[in-house]
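Figure S4 source data
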Amino acid sequence: MNLKKCLSILIGSVLLNAGAFAKVIMPGVFSDNMVLQQKTMARVWGKANAGKTVTITSSWNNKTYTTIADADGNWKTKIKTPSYGGPYQVTITDGSDPVVLNNVLIGEVWICSGQSNMEMPVAGWGQVNNYKEEIANANYPEIRLLQVSQATSLTPQTNIKVANNGWMVCSPQTIGEFSSVAYFFAREINKQVKIPIGLISSNWGGTMIEAWSDENTLTNNPVFSAQIKQQQRNLLKQKRH
């Protein structure tokens, strides 16, 4: 077999498998150290090869949930969570290499969003009162932190970019650049009721409230409807090209 033919076979094989996943792919909101909302049917979703059966096993009840990836490889389901506690494991697989999420807690999950007053970190440009002492004392292993990276989009997204590859355990090493308002809020709750707290920090200083509103709401507002419709037309043109 000559070199040209070998290269053709190799390239064809790579193209054939370009869309295949070696294992399920989880969005940035799912990682080690995460917190799931207690006493609910928590949503879980991700990507897999089209048509694959995905199984999710939770260690708190050893129950397995199954769902099937659609034609685009998207899958989603819900898993039942108990009262607060942990740590636990969540295992997700489509029959290939499993994704195992370790050190998972069950508790209360809060989205902390807004402008600079919510974004202001404990240290960094924020430097709250006695910030060095606050950081040194920030040993709260039942508080978990997820920092969403700042990004814009005109359409709803199924994934997010996050800092530090996912959830972090609250410690002097991790709290400095996190939202001070969110941290002090979680610390008080954790001290009073001893429940694990998951904080999802998604904020952007100086942003207008319209940037956080959904498209349908803005479309029905006469002040913004013309702009939204023009954006919709522009997006349609981009898809056609």
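Figure S5 source data
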Amino acid sequence: MADSSRGRSGASARPLRRHEVAERIKRYIIDNRLRPGDPLPSEGELCEALAASRSSVREAVKTLDALDIVEVRHGHGTFVGRLSMSALVEGLTFRGLLSPEDDFKVLEELVDVREVLERGMAQRILDTLHADHLTELDALVDEMEAGLAAGREVITIDRRFHALLVEPLKNDLISQFSSACWDVYGIVAPHLQVITKQDEIDTVNAHRAVVAAVRGSDAAAFDRAVEAHYRPARRRIAAARERNAKAAAVAGAGSAPGAGPAPAARL
């Protein structure tokens, strides 16, 4: 009995670890029904409420700040964060930039996820988009076509098009997830290099077909248009992978005995 008592006493006296304090802060937010932007108690008040040391609270807050669960505003205090998917973006981006092969894998997975999301929500998208949305979508496709013809990057326009596509659903999680995918894509995709003329034509036509399908309330046509939209991206990924494989082969040959230094292979 004495040993058990000492064990419990030792456990209760053990300083809380950072992850334990972080979990208590999350529980505090939930129990007090706090919303994004609501202020949290001061550091001292949190220490008292959570029975934790100042150093543990500070470390826990740093962790939660990085995850956008809380937001530290220097000189003003700590607030409930936006609860965005910034941590997902950071993780996928870092993974995608670690090596060329991870670039390919991340991009392929992003294409898969975006395509599944939009095709899976097809009927709801058709039901919620109205005339004003269609007018704006048409304008974005015109802007995209003009930009490609002028040799400009149109990823921002493409992103606005797809954001508008799901905006009427009024589903914050879908909107945030779609935005997170674009954040990662925008950072990693430049490694795919040149977009071909055929890619440009196919991209514009696919976007126009999406708008036409919505205007005609044709779910089957919408499904085909979305699939066609992602086809150029898949081609670019496959072409980049092939380029990288050839560059790696040349690099390997160049590193043979007696050969000069081989250039590093990139996408």
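The chain has a mean pLDDT of 81. The chain is about 70% helix and 5% strand.
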